[in-house]
Amino acid sequence: MFIAADKSPPSFKDFTLVMPAVAVGNVGQLAVDLIVSTLNMNRVGYIHTDCLIPMAGNNPYATCKEDAEEMHTPGEVYTAPELKLAVLQIRAPIIQTKSKKFRQLIMSWIKASGFSRTVVLSSSHAYQRDDRQMEGVPLRYLITPSLLKVSADALKELGWREMERVPAFPGLTDANMEQRLCIPGGGITKGLYTDSCSEDLPLAVLLLFCSEGDNIPDAFTLVNHLNDWLHLLDNPGQEPNKWKIPTSWSLLFGSGIPPALF
Amino acid sequence: MATFFGEVLSAYSRAVEEEEDDEDLEENEEDEQIRRELEEKREVHLHWRPEVSESLRSGNKLQCSDFVLAVGHNAARFLSVYVLTSANWDTVGHASVWNERSRAVTGQTNEESACIFYRHKDNPSVVICQVTCYIAEDQLFQWTEKVFDCLQHRELNVTVLSDSSVADYKTADYLCTSSAPFLRSIHTGTFSGQPVCQALEQPNIITGLPAAVLNHCQVHRIATVVYQCYSDVIGPDSVTMETYKPALTKLGKSIQVDCSPSTDILRKFVKTTDIQSNLYI
């Protein structure tokens, strides 16, 4: 559940919530790291639950020696009140048997907090794209009916493609085949989306097709698309957005190599 | 995923397991019963001495000002050799934890010796716990909640000693690892003391039981510090054990650390490697 970091619990009324799904390439989580790091957001609380694998580390967004020793947990909430933005960062995998419980926890927290809309950043296996999906921009969106009412125009202007439905049994040529939503490698993304539809929550999903590897460019791509919609960074002119890479993004592929190895 | 030569490999993700669409399917009663029984078997159970159980049942938590938790064989043996041999400690309880890695050892209740709580005879508000068994990911939270539910939280100070392999330590400077074993610390927001070693640098993280304890103590504002010892020796090792000495100096008044234990005691706790694993002596 949500536990405030300070004695006075923060108000999230009418805030936009951005949260990642733990998905292929960890793209959503990397994108959220960029948002927190660039906007210098403050931690206002924790999501303390038995659904996430425990982990702890010192400040991943440290800028100087003084703030480097602040401890961080696997589920934390940050805010930028001037932008009416709240961000949930999830740093650990969801325990396999607790995936549904975690979804329910997040849904009830979203409802209780009064967020005006939620955006889930996610990703899906690139190798499972069908022919249509292999062309064009690898970005897809999903939106619940209640948020579509408000954001239809913005989405039309952005020209994004909605995530395609695929036949339930690919290969069978029955024309009356049932089409369903499939997000391979997306973790709880599909569950969150379908639950939000049935509970009438204003929620959107932004996902990128990608593969495991160096997913930093994917994170930049996803966060830039998000910025096109939410305008988190004010950037007059056509310069590329300046996202700040956090200090925790070092040694992503292991320690330094001893030269004696060669 | 197809490779250059045309064979198809299944790609997997570091982040997610394959989607479990069947999670939402209705289970039949028998499956559900099996699942429930398995869940019950994996529950963490705390067994206290009768007077402690009695006290807890009547709503009084264990009075505790200092709680020292040792996770891992070297951390646990450090406490056995340098602290517990003074015979000023009573066993007050143990935790039983079963998971797929628990091995049944004939003639010994393995569970009992794997997670034991001790209390100082003269100063009963100092509690020590040694954990040498593997606690699975889904049991960590439960273990932590159940144990801390028994301890009173006001002005509680927690110190965790934890073993780790230097192979898990990430650093740009490879030479750093030749100074193993070494300590790194991480503490909660309410910890006001001075750690006895360097802070754990990014991008290193703590996992397992020490992480579960840190998470719990951070959200419940309990002053806690974890000292992680990175060692290049897999088994029990006296040099690694000695590395923990500075961690308990702050508690010097409450816990007497025997600075130079006799070789007999050391020999008793640092047993030689098992015959079947002498490939890498």
TrEMBL record, chain A:
Highest taxon in the source lineage: Eukaryota
GO terms (BP aspect): proteasome assembly
Classification via InterPro entries: Proteasome_assmbl_chaperone_2 (IPR019151), Proteasome_assmbl_chp_2_euk (IPR016562), PSMG2_sf (IPR038389)
Principal subcellular localisation of the protein: nucleus
Entries under Pfam families matching the protein: PAC2 (PF09754)
Subcellular location: Nucleus
Keywords, comma-separated and alphabetical: Chaperone, Nucleus, Phosphoprotein, Proteasome
Entry GO terms, CC: cytosol; nucleus; proteasome complex
SUPFAM superfamilies: Cgl1923-like (SSF159659)
Subunit-structure text: Forms a heterodimer with PSMG1. The PSMG1-PSMG2 heterodimer interacts directly with the PSMA5 and PSMA7 proteasome alpha subunits.
Family: Belongs to the PSMG2 family.
Free-text function comment from the UniProt entry: Chaperone protein which promotes assembly of the 20S proteasome as part of a heterodimer with PSMG1. The PSMG1-PSMG2 heterodimer binds to the PSMA5 and PSMA7 proteasome subunits, promotes assembly of the proteasome alpha subunits into the heteroheptameric alpha ring and prevents alpha ring dimerization.
Protein name (database record): Proteasome assembly chaperone 2
Organism: Lates calcarifer
Designated gene of the protein: PSMG2
UniProtKB/TrEMBL annotation, chain B:
The keyword Chaperone is annotated on this UniProt entry: yes
Disordered: region residues: 14-33
Entry-linked InterPro entries: Proteasome_assmbl_chp_1
A single cellular component GO annotation: proteasome complex
This protein's UniProt keywords: Chaperone, Proteasome
GO BP term, example: proteasome core complex assembly
Sequence ranges of Acidic residues compositional bias: 17-32
Pfam families per UniProt: PAC1
Gene Ontology MF term list: proteasome binding
Mitochondrion found in the keyword field: no
PANTHER family listed in its UniProt record: PROTEASOME ASSEMBLY CHAPERONE 1
Family membership: Belongs to the PSMG1 family.
Protein name: Proteasome assembly chaperone 1
